[in-house]
Design goal:
3-stranded mixed β-sheet, 15 helices, 16% strand, alpha+beta, 6-stranded antiparallel β-sheet
């Protein structure tokens, strides 16, 4: 050892550790215990470096966790409302079918609400809905999905049937305020209203329009895509109802309030009142002013006016309206008479062809009170080639006059020939129908007596039906007697005609003629 150099001490060996040298005198290696300790130490150090924050070289220099909420939201933009960041949540699909067997084909979002509303029989409830109600459900669902509103619906409470359209001649009038509706409960009514207001296409009804929906926040859709519009009303306790206005009365909302279009608004609200006039019967014109007044009084319920006081308000001006009607010459209930006249038919030479002619002409007459002018004499029915001979016509008229002289009307009802059809006219019409069916090999014929007979009550229907049966049997017997000596084949055809069908009251009624 050179002088001045400190001798290096020999490493101490663990006396308990076995000698790691090989038995054949190979080089010594580290003991098993020392090697294991170093291996564990290196692994621990590598993991510590990986876990340490960036810029930190040692475990002792590792920084505190970053809990700043601002930086957290920067790293997770999908959690920020309105950020526009894409999320995995997809908008509900739209419905493309509404038939009774299409429940399983409905979108998952619609079925989810249905099964939450009717947990035991959702499919059966869907199938049991009427076709208009089922179509309205899917149409309303699609409309709400389009604006992201369906997610607010918790459960469906019920379905309100729409009022049937009123018909005036060729016109079909829908009742805008009584369309097919859906009643449901939402999670948060205020949140639903806020969603609609921020969409830019919904406006809140205010002023007189809002007063038509007392206790509710009435929201109307404005759109240029379709003439109709979603009308959704939200109550104070998360109850809501929705229907589709056949004619949307709104323009683009301003300041989140509905802007009513004058023309479409008049059309919308007039259709709500108009069918009520039709139900008043012949005297509807006299009652228009009072009916409008009563309708307006009903709307005062919004201001807390009680039922009893509203009834008083309706009774006070009734005499005034009647006096005003008398002053202008329509005090007498507006007389709407009906004149029935037989019409000669032009029949197709081929009996299998559908008949084009009519059996009699129905003419309406109007007289507006004692001061009004009397209606002119109705024009003569159109002439044509009659299918009945003069001899057969005389036999039929005589048979009818013997069994049912006068007019056909329910017992106890007052009326003249202007209100009801007379027996001879109806008998002649029956004869023409029977003759046509005899040529075509038919067994039954149809008859139309006009709208006067469409409002009969059940007891009145039974009475008129019995009168028609008596007349029908007399007509058939007279035709058989007359034709048996003239045309045996045609007589056999008449004998094969067994019944007739006519509308009495709200439905068709079959009466026997044999």
């Amino acid at each position: 050892m050179p002088p001045g150099k400190t001798p290096t001490p020999e490493p101490k060996q663990n006396p308990s550790a076995p000698d790691s040298r090989s038995a054949d005198g190979g080089d010594a290696v580290q003991s098993g215990g020392s090697y294991l300790n170093k291996l564990i130490g290196k692994t621990y150090a590598a993991q510590s470096q990986a876990l340490a924050p960036k810029g930190s070289n040692t475990l002792g220099m590792r920084g505190a966790p970053d809990l700043d909420p601002g930086r957290f939201l920067e790293k997770n933009p999908q959690l920020v409302e309105g950020s526009g960041a894409k999320t995995d949540k997809k908008a509900p699909e739209k419905s493309t079918r509404s038939n009774a067997t299409s429940y399983d084909a409905q979108p998952e979002a619609l079925r989810e609400v249905m099964e939450r509303s009717f947990p035991e029989n959702a499919s059966s409830v869907f199938s049991a809905l009427s076709d208009p109600a089922r179509s309205n459900l899917t149409y309303t669902y699609n409309r709400m999905v389009e604006y992201g509103l369906w997610g607010h619906v918790r459960v469906i409470r019920g379905f309100v049937e729409g009022e049937k359209p009123a018909k005036v001649g060729p016109l079909e009038l829908h009742v805008a305020g009584k369309s097919e509706s859906i009643l449901f409960e939402v999670y948060d009514g205020k949140a639903l209203v806020d969603t609609m207001l921020t969409s830019g296409v919904f406006g809140k009804d205010v002023g007189p329009t809002g007063a038509l929906h007392p206790g509710q926040t009435s929201m109307r859709e404005w759109t240029l895509k379709t003439p109709d519009g979603l009308h959704l009303s939200v109550g104070p306790e998360n109850d809501a109802d929705a229907h589709i206005d056949k004619k949307s009365p709104t323009n683009k909302p301003k300041g989140q309030t509905s802007q009513m279009d004058v023309v479409r608004s008049l059309e919308h609200h007039w259709q709500e009142v108009w069918p009520e006039f039709l139900r008043l019967g012949p005297g509807w014109l006299v009652q228009v002013p009072f009916h409008v007044y009563s309708w307006l009084v009903d709307k005062t319920k919004f201001f807390g006016v009680g039922d009893r006081f509203r009834k008083v308000l309706k009774q006070i001006p009734k005499s005034l309206f009647e006096a005003a009607a008398f002053a202008v010459g329509i005090a007498d209930p507006v007389f709407a008479g009906t004149t029935f006249k037989p019409a000669d038919k032009v029949e197709h030479p081929d009996p299998s062809q559908k008949q084009k002619g009519s059996d009699f002409v129905v003419i309406k007459e109007y007289r507006f009170g004692s001061r009004g002018k009397k209606s002119r004499t109705p024009a003569a029915p159109p002439a044509g080639q009659s299918s009945m001979t003069e001899e057969l016509t005389k036999a039929v008229l005589k048979a009818v006059s013997d069994v049912a002289p006068g007019i056909i009307k329910p017992a106890g009802q007052k009326g003249s020939r202007d209100d009801y059809a007379d027996g001879e006219t109806v008998g002649e019409a029956m004869a023409g129908k029977m003759l046509y069916q005899a040529k075509a090999g038919g067994v039954s014929f149809g008859l139309e007596l006009g709208p006067t007979y469409h409002t009969l009550k059940p007891a009145e229907v039974k009475d008129v039906k019995s009168q028609l049966t008596v007349i029908g049997k007399a007509v058939r017997e007279a035709m058989l007697t007359t034709l048996s000596s003239k045309d045996d084949k045609l007589a056999q055809g008449v004998a094969g005609v067994r019944s007739g069908t006519v509308q009495l009251g709200p439905s068709l009624v079959r009466f026997s003629v044999h």
